[in-house]
Amino acid sequence: MAPDGVNIRPYRALILDDDERFRRLAGDILRVKGFVVDTAKDPSEGVARIDSQNFHLLIFDISMGGRGNRDWLDLLGKLRSEGKIDSCLVVVVSNYGELPEYLHESFHDFHVDEVMDKSRFHIESFGERMRQLAETKMKLNRSLLVAWTHGPREASAALFNLKVAGKRVRPDSKDFARFQEELEDLFCRLFWKAESILISKLPGGRSGAGVVKVQPVVRGVAHGPVVVKFGDVADIETEHTNYDEYVVGMLGGNRSPSIAATARTRFLGGIVYSLLGAEEFEPFASFYASASQDDVRQVLDHLFLSTCARWYAAPMSAEVYDLAEEYRTWLRMTPTNLETAWKELKTVQGGTTLKFQSLSSPVAIKNPIPLAESPFITQTYRCITHGDLNGGNILIDPDRKTWLIDFFRTGHGHVLRDHAFLDVYTRCAILGPGEATLDERLQLEQALLQLRRTDAKGVPVGQLQSDNPSLQQAFETSLHLRSIAAKHGHHRTSIDMPDYDVASMFYATNMIRFYHMATVQKEHGVLAAGLLAERLGL
Description:
Oligomer: single chain
Number of helices: 18
Distance between the termini: 67 Å
């Protein structure tokens, strides 16, 4: 029974058959049963329909054109291997009467849900059978009430960062409405047992995916919130694989998320992460904005020394390799995409050295953009790392304990990869555009460059002379991250870590590609990268 005021969403069916009479007859019967029906008369037209719409049911005639069954089996296999019909129920129809055993075996391999003989086609039973098939085999809650905390505008905003099939989903694109519909369909699959869900957008990462908090109601009982990651099907499959390989049994502190559900549509995939025991949580970015420095240190200690401890504690051996090339590959930093982003930053000019319009006094800072193509051979360590520790992928529960989500970039890499990225992200991105001027940000970076040694507890020794509390917090957070990095990087007596500086330079340079960030934050990234390039002697 659908909740009051909730419409029952229709099933969408595609009939792929060159028999016009059958297309018309079957389509009319399905429409009477409430299906939305589209048709195609040949394979190329059918594939085009599948690529442009989200279907729940595919009716596929393998006797089209009187050609051999093998031709159409090959097409069916190709559609399945390319993942184009993995979200559909597939019904095969044929004019050939009793089908040979090899066809039934192929249908099993291709996950065909039903086989029908056209010669025994019954108008009375066809529509009801298709409806029953959809109701029993497809886990899809057509009456789910989907509500967003801030209304339709928030629902649209959740798609803004999405990257599907290599392209960003733009609000002004012709496909935007289609992805809105497909996202709602995805929620209906992920929460097929719920009566309603309340969704709130969370900060997304760099993978071109969306992250939301969802509070479901199941059988009249409000359940605790879960986190849903959604995005390109292939990327979500990669994340699921990474979760199985690097997360299960590896994250500590009793704060390991579990996967409660997965689902997909034609283009979108989704994962539901359950944070068992955490009835409330907030992203690190919003926590950081109101937390004391002691609380921030406590959270960072739990993150690196408890939650991720097994990743960094695994036996490691030193390796000599081109660290710059590794970061270029991870960040997909090509001369073309750097140049495109650089052209949009119109407040910074120069060639070898840069001029910042926002600085009150001219300062000669090396241009880090060309240096992003230079090698940097060093000796360092590798281990499992998260790969994208931004302010949205670290969740804080009321006990100040940390949970991680979004494992798309998780895998083996530079041991200080996570420390360096969170350090740069905190200073450049979480430090809001109105919280510090570029002059103050320069002061912060210069103070960090003065760090050369640690005290007896391994904490870097240094000071920042500023009465700006936000700037001071960024400085203290950076100090603490570097003290943790010094331990994990096997440099226990010195804060001089060239591999940390290389990682930081690449991450800071890459900030200009964060299209959603304010100009002063992008300027901060370029400025920090340039100063690090000078320190490294590049």
